[in-house]
Amino acid sequence: MVKIGYLGPRGTFTKLAVDTAFNGENKQSFGAIPECIDAVNDRQIDIGVVPLENAIEGTVQLTVDYLVHQVRLPIVAEIVVPIEQHLLVTSGFNGDLSSVGHVYSHSHAIAQCHQFLHAHMPDAELHFTSSTGKAAEMVSHSDGGIAAIGNKLAASEYGLTIYQENIHDYTNNHTRFAVLASDQEKVFIDHEVQTEKTSLLITLPSDYAGALYQVLAAFAWRNMNLSKIESRPMKTGLGNYFFIVDVNESYDDVLFPGVIAELEALGCNVTILGTYPVYHMDI
Questions:
Q1: 98-151 pLDDT per residue, tens
Q2: What PANTHER family is this protein classified in (predicted)?
Q3: Which tens digits make up the pLDDT trace of 205-263?
Q4: What are the helix (H) ranges across 27-121?
């Protein structure tokens, strides 16, 4: 049986994505993103699912940096799910938000609910946890006076009450999750493919005027659509960066080899992080 790991504990959005994409497989939660990625690399699990990017808060930098600097695992699929954040309290909550002195959740979730917190709970102290599921777990063990921000699964898993639904600032909020596996043949997602994508890691030559422009031009004149380009530090000194480029098409034997050859001629280093299907799902 295929074993799937995800950022846990129970009740996270990653768990929701896994439950929606994979039915019946053996699933294991991990307390941190690096732990899940390492487990795939060490063959403790077959597939790992970790958050990659949120539409409001941007890239999950820990995921990207760990895949680039620590463990090079291919992205074999991408799952996109809508994000709905709710205020979760214990069943005995008295209904007075002013009595809630502390709110717990992942940093992205708290940032996504800034307007609600500012308007209704301005005096509450905000605490960051490793996941929304972890925040719900902490609140479930409390005697009151604290709340969590999380999803309906978290409320169900930990016996919490949804005091206020949909407290996020923006309605069109989605998160992309990367599906990682050493053996792509073990990954089966029985859903409609929305599109195909290829992700590249590009390192520019140093002291080369106009290098980034020439990199983008290599894609542009071939009419290859880039859905994302993002820079991240190489961690080798100030001013040294690599670029993650997402191309909205699968790898082929003509366009991509041509792009790579052109970029390498400019002195760039190019690594393919994955070519994979993208699934948009309702949860």
A1: 889 999 999 889 999 999 999 999 999 999 998 899 999 999 988 778 999 999
A2: PREPHENATE DEHYDRATASE P PROTEIN, PREPHENATE DEHYDRATASE-RELATED
A3: 776 677 788 889 999 999 999 999 988 877 776 767 788 999 999 999 999 999 999 99
A4: 33-41, 61-69, 107-112, 114-120
Q: Alpha helix locations (H) across 146-265?
A: 152-158, 211-220, 255-265
Spatial neighbors of 239 by CB under 8 A, at least 6 apart, are: none
CATH code, 267: 3.30.70.260
Residues 91 and 220 in one domain: no
Q: Which of 81, 76, 80, 64 is nearest to 251 (CA)?
A: 76
- HEC states along 97-164? HHHCCEEEEEHHHHHHCHHHHHHHCCCCEEEEECCHHHHHHHHHCCCCCEEEEECHHHHHHHCCEEEE
Indicate the SS3 state at residue 258: helix
Q: Which residue has the tokens 């422009």?
A: 213
